[in-house]
Write a structure and sequence with these properties.
The complex is a heterodimer. Chain A contains seven helices and six strands. Chain A is an alpha/beta fold. Classes of the chains: A alpha/beta, B alpha/beta. Chains A and B meet through helix 7 of A and helix 5, helix 6 and strand 11 of B.
């Protein structure tokens, strides 16, 4: 009888210990906060990329007139050396820089004449339609394997373009006039299969009027 | 003398056996030719026919046996196709899913059986089920279409959107890419948005209904080219083909021709052959020991307009002149 009672007590104690360790309570807002922290924040990622990777790498941009001259000679090699893209396909991106004179200020872009001792080339710089992956991909510093979700790296492009539309372009657009000399660093998209060097559009990362 | 004869015989028998076994080994290698299953969501749409046939042809060109299984847009038939492929000893599956969520279980089943799965064009909502996923960059392609749409509409007007299958991620990636641009311009107002399941006939009916409710629209954006063709047909019947701009997505042959004829304004060119060949190459590299594949690999989509349409043909680039 006594041993039976001891057995019951031990069994109850075991059940209580198991039950105690099986159930625990947490505040709902704490759990939600942890889940939110785990979610990818494209705006934060884009701002960190902009400050810590993109701006420090702008000195690696290639002179646009030099790039187009080299592309006319050996397209495949220059694409391989200077272009980047997160995916596969014909669309590739280059980080470029240049100096030139504005020949037209249009509603959605500006036309710029780039002139060296031996070449003349007119390009456009986007001032309205800043969309796409050029700025995200041009440096080659983002690894696709960092992203588990397709939409995350799409949103990084959207957030980088938003920075350009909201922080880079407004101050430039407020002062720019036809005939101004400008300097820029930015990204361009080129199709390696059907290369068209007469229609180059730069998405600016840095752009300023110079004296 | 007798002993020498015996040694000679033993030598001859050994040599003969070696030759025989060597021959057997060659035969065995041939018997063990690896098999690749191509499981495709549907063969009713020519785009997927190109995808499946290219995948099978590439696998065969790489030295494997290949067979196409049609899931007829039915997840339970897709499950049967997976069961058959696994039971029949296929060594890899090149897979175009019917449903981003519903197809995950099939991919996991193959993974558990040690059969690698390489997704083509459509994705499954799992990062660790498939060995790799080679996907059209639908979002970015529709960003390009959205930008062109805004330019063509001069930043103002009313439009409708015809969506694809609501359970397919491509439907929403395309719609989100398009709206990430168009919604920046408040002068552009979407007055209706409805699904037509990527189907030409349903899109025609949907367009007819939308026209009755919103006869004042200036444009329609369709989530694929089959629906763009259906919508255009409805506009022709209503006598509005010249007033309402049609935008599609896919790069299907009839729409590329319609762009040449200035009937449809633009589409996004996907490259089913590039996707299929990349998936088959991945399977080949897997057999040779590679394991570190990018989980999701986007394939660039190119904007096709009336200005550059001569550079393209159905499902890809026109050959360089």
């Amino acid at each position: 009888m006594k041993s039976k009672t001891i057995k019951y007590i031990i069994a109850i104690a075991v059940i209580v210990v198991i039950a105690y360790n099986s159930v625990y309570f947490k505040k709902l807002d704490e759990v939600k906060a942890v889940e939110t922290a785990k979610e990818f924040n494209a705006a934060t990622y884009a701002q960190n990329f902009w400050n810590n990777k993109l701006l420090p790498s702008l000195n690696k941009a290639i002179e646009l007139t030099q790039l187009t001259a080299m592309l006319s000679v050996d397209t495949a090699k220059i694409f391989e050396t200077y272009s980047h893209a997160l995916g596969i396909g014909n669309l590739r991106y280059f980080l470029v820089k240049g100096k030139g004179q504005i020949t037209a200020v249009n509603e959605d872009d500006i036309s710029v004449l780039l002139q060296t001792d031996i070449t003349k080339q007119t390009i456009t710089i986007a001032t309205e339609y800043v969309f796409g992956n050029a700025v995200r991909d041009a440096t080659g510093l983002i690894d696709i394997n960092e992203f588990s979700n397709t939409m995350d790296f799409n949103n990084v492009s959207a957030e980088l373009n938003k920075i350009i539309r909201e922080k880079v372009l407004p101050s430039f657009k407020s002062v720019v006039k036809n005939g101004n000399a400008i300097e820029f660093v930015g990204a361009i998209e080129l199709n390696k299969e059907h290369l068209n060097l007469s229609k180059i559009e730069v998405v600016p990362v840095e752009i300023k009027v110079v004296q | 003398m007798l002993r020498l004869f015996a040694i000679k015989n033993i030598f001859t028998i050994t040599l003969f056996s070696l030759v025989l076994f060597a021959g057997c080994k060659t035969d065995t290698t041939q018997d063990q030719k690896k098999k690749v299953a191509v499981i495709v969501s549907t063969l009713n749409n020519p785009w997927f026919v190109v995808l499946a046939q290219t995948a099978a042809a590439k696998a065969e060109a790489l030295g494997y046996e290949a067979k196409i299984f049609d899931s007829q847009n039915n997840t339970s038939l897709e499950a049967d196709n997976f069961d058959n492929a696994i039971a029949s000893g296929y060594n890899a599956i090149l897979f175009n899913p019917t449903d981003a969520d519903g197809s995950v279980v099939n991919v996991l089943k193959a993974k558990a059986a040690g059969v690698p799965v390489f997704c083509m064009d459509r994705e499954v909502n799992s990062t660790d089920a498939a060995t790799s996923q080679i996907l059209s960059d639908n979002y970015s392609g529709c960003v390009a279409i959205g930008k062109y749409f805004v330019e063509q509409m001069h930043k103002q007007g009313k439009y409708v959107e015809i969506l694809g299958l609501v359970g397919d991620n491509n439907t929403w990636n395309r719609s989100k890419g398009f709206h990430s641009v168009v919604d920046v311009y408040p002068g552009l107002k979407m007055v209706a948005q409805q699904s037509a399941d990527f189907d030409r006939n349903k899109a025609m009916e949907t367009m007819e209904t939308m026209l009755q409710a919103h006869p004042e629209i200036n444009a329609v954006f369709c989530g694929n080219d089959a629906m763009a063709s259906g919508a255009y047909q409805a506009l022709v019947a209503a006598g509005k083909a010249n007033d309402i701009k049609v935008f599609g997505f896919d790069g299907a042959e009839d729409v590329v021709n319609s762009i040449k004829d200035k009937k449809i304004v633009a589409t996004g060119m996907q490259f089913p052959k590039v996707i299929a060949q990349t998936a088959a190459n991945d399977a080949d590299e897997y057999f040779k020991g590679k394991r570190d594949f990018p989980k999701k690999m986007p394939v660039a989509v190119e904007l096709v307009t009336q200005e550059n349409v001569n550079e393209y043909m159905g499902y890809g680039k026109a050959p360089n002149p």
